[in-house]
Amino acid sequence: MTLQEKIDLIKNNQAIAMLAPTFAIDFKYPNIIGMLYKLGFKEVTELTFGARMVNWAYANYIKENPKQELYISSPCPTVVALVKAQYPELAKYLMPVVSPMAAMAKICKKINPNYKIVFISPCWAKELLEAPKYKEIDAVITLKDLKKIFDQAGIKEEDFSDKICFDSLIREYTKIYPISGGLAATSHIQKLFKEGEILVTDGAGNIKKVLEDFKSGSRQYKFLDLLNCNGGCIGGPAINKQDLSTEERKKIIYEYTHRSSDECMGKHKGKVKDAKDIDLSAIY
Predict the structure, then answer these.
(1) Could you tell me the pTM of the whole model?
(2) Which end of the chain has the lower number of beta carbons within 10 A, N or C?
């Protein structure tokens, strides 16, 4: 789908924008919400509730399969592709749970079945590798492409109010998901493992090393929280501000997390019942 086709999809349909938390690195919150409305979206939501449901599914799976030798996190499509291509014997350890993107898309589609769902991403892999697997996701727009669209349309941050809320959100610290270790930190899986059994790492080289170590017989870790980009999704290649350091990006996400979690909640709050009967399983 071309960029113009994505713009037409938004303008010619009732569409929901699902924002990856990394948006805060490139765009001012909450002005971005008004900018997306101006672009033509009918609703603008975060992935926080989808991430919460993924966390819930992770904890349940581990509790139901306590004797599994290893668990590998699966929200990152590049990590999933790497394991399947270069370590196929380890693919059975990938967590059979969808990503927050897919989970939130399924939830949005259940509530608004006639709406188009557009994910706004810091990552090309979400568009190329993962989104095509899910009928609920109609398009993916990277943060770089979103800036192009805003620039072409003359949509500027300063033209929009800083007193606006997401259409659907919850007071959730899953907003730190894009930071390396965010999944392990917010999913409470620490309670299911002994100290030292969870490994958090990022970057292709580090990931390959830990997988090679496991193949060679190392059994130090039982849960691997892995993200391909340096620092996690905050290091995504489709982020505009590539000049920022990892620490600067982390600071932005933490500040956004605390500020947005303390402000107005909007009229819709994510509840577990909203995800009832939604299949969050995945086959890798």
Answers:
(1) 0.94
(2) N
| Residue 27 lies in domain | 3-275
Tens digits of per-residue pLDDT, 155-210? 999 999 777 888 865 667 789 999 999 999 998 898 999 999 999 999 999 999 99
Among candidate residues 213, 244, 258, 207, the one with its CA nearest the CA of residue 229: 207
What is the domain-level CATH number for residue 145? Answer: 3.40.50.1780
* Residue 22, both tokens: 């990394």
DSSP 131: G
Crossing angle for the helix pair 143-153 and 3-11, to the nearest 10 degrees: 70
Question: Is residue 44 in some structural domain?
Answer: yes
For residue 93, give both structure tokens: 């350890």
> How far apart (Å, rounded) are the C-alpha atoms in residues 155 and 35?
6
Segment 61-83 shows an average pLDDT of 97
In a domain, 283, yes or no: no
